[in-house]
Amino acid sequence: MKEIFRQISEFLRGGFLVLLVLAASALAVYRLIRVQVAAEDNSPKQVINQSVYTQSISATRGEIVDSDGNPIVSNRVGYHLIIEKAYFPSDKAAGNDVILRAAELLQASGYEWNDTMPVSRTQPYTFDADREKDADAMRENLRLNTYATAENCIDKLISDYAISKDYTAEQKRIIAGIRYEMLLRQFSMANVFYLANDIDLQFVTKIKELRVTLPGVNIAEAAVRTVEQGDILPHEIGYVGPIYSEEEYETLLENGHDDYALSDTVGKTGLESAMEATLRGINGKKEITVTNGEVSSVAVTEEPVGGKTIQLTVNSNIQRAMQRDLDAHCYNLRVSSSACRNVFCGASVLLDAHDNAVLGMATVPTYNLDELLEDYKAVAERSNTPLVNRATDGLYRPGSTFKTITATAGLDSGIITGQSTYDCEQTFRYIDTKYHCTGCHHFIAVSRALTVSCNIFFYNLGLNLGIDRLCDYERLYGLGSPLGLESGDSGGYIACPETFEQLGMQWYVGEITQASIGQSEVQVTPLQMAVVASTIANKGVRYKPHLIASEWNNTMTEKLWEHEPEVAANVNTSGGDYYYYIEQGMIGAAKAAMPAKYDLNHIGVSVALKTGTPQRGAGTDTFVIGYAPVEDPEIAFCAMIEGGMNAKYLVRQMMQAYAQEYPDSQIGRAMYIAPGSEENENSAQ
Length: 685
Prior knowledge:
By secondary structure, this protein is an alpha+beta fold. Helices cover about 40% and strands about 20% of the residues. Strands 2, 3, 4, 5, 10, 18 and 19 form a 7-stranded mixed sheet that branches. The longest helix is centred in the first third of the chain and has 41 residues, at about 1-40.
């Protein structure tokens, strides 16, 4: 029994000891937890500083293609050297070192960096002579007075950005120029700075290898505008470029483009500018989250939407043929006629008579868009102003081609009928001035007067009309104001007292005689006169000319919009059928004998045309307008040669170019010559 009690006693004692140990351990753990919690409560809390920035993602620009869908300007993948604020040193000295090393890498590889500061690259520093506005803006941006010199501006940049005195003068200028460009481009978390554009893969590889030592410097992949057919309508296509100034940026914002960044590329001239809103697309967005000074995440919140593709009415093959034939005609005149040794300039326009779609539009001299982008100054300084498109912006007297307008005014207003005659005895006296005609036509009616281009008939008609009524019809035909071509066109002006007053000239009542035959101070473009021809072909209905046929999505898989014929005016205000008499006169003019190569009498298609030889201070120009086929017009045209002869020789060539591309048309069925045939080879020569 005693043994049993002893065992029980030892068991209880052992259990008690175990419980005691467990209690002590629990108390120790409890105290340890309390100490740790108290320590955490007494330690400073971790501060989290987080900011989110929105950055723009550029959309791919829409292409411009010809009537067959062949690209004229398109895009390719390009690489740009950029600096990103999120990774760029906040310390100015460290940032200057990164800028200089990046610039030196570019320089060693033959690249230029973006520096538009209007200050010379070497000492003594001076402002660029032709950039006064930019110099004023620089003073303002740097908060200097209006008398600050270029040296003052450089010194201010050196001071503001802590550019070390240990750098050479050249290095200081490099850093100052890039720093100022970053200021202009509003370099920030939201705005990436493009240091250099369109670099090659070899340089891309070099930068990627050195990125650890160039904080903030990176490569951005983006579409680069490329020229596929630089010889097709270079004036009308235009070009793109960066936003050059805050003033330009503000203008874009004022025009409703509120999502532009200063680093964006925009249209500068031609359709690239006029159709900017259509071509540019919609930029995307990405959010950059910065936590405690470090980029913690980057997320695309809105994908960019590519710009629309624009399809033109112009056929590239017709355009090239017209340009070639116009060049050749001017050359042939120079080498064959001593009176035409200085003939270097002219224009031709071919329209679809159904709606005034531009099928081709040539001008000489011209240029290739690639050449212009390579060296703008070299192209601009060539002789005879090649930057002017004479088809849309060249202003000329129309000469006798204008008689079609005077005839319309007389017939529509009821001043004459198709049978009315005036007596032409080769001389005509009005008040104290004697005028002359090319022949003695006796009593002549309007159709014959147009065929033989009788001046005296139209002197009489003009006097009976009066200048106000004549001007009304000029305006109905589209003269005196721009026609509204998408890329822009000049309006010229009409001969009237108001124009004379603007020119500081005295208007005399006798001016109506010269105004009636396309002389005096009337100024028109070849495009306007092609529209006059088309309006006659359409019996007085004037369509607005256009270059754009349709708009497509960025991949050109879906047509989004198609041009509908747009009536600008109806010249036939009386509702009469008098255009028959004008047309008969133009048919007669087309039957005039010409060398076999240019003759219009045996081509299987009827043609209506009117020629003119307007006088100007420097000599005599040559004009022709018309349309074909007469029975159901498909095309209307105009050609003009400054100081030359026989613009009418270009008519058959324009028709052949059209027939070649549209063999199923009326003209095509009559004139189509198979490529490679002997006849085609002869005509090309």
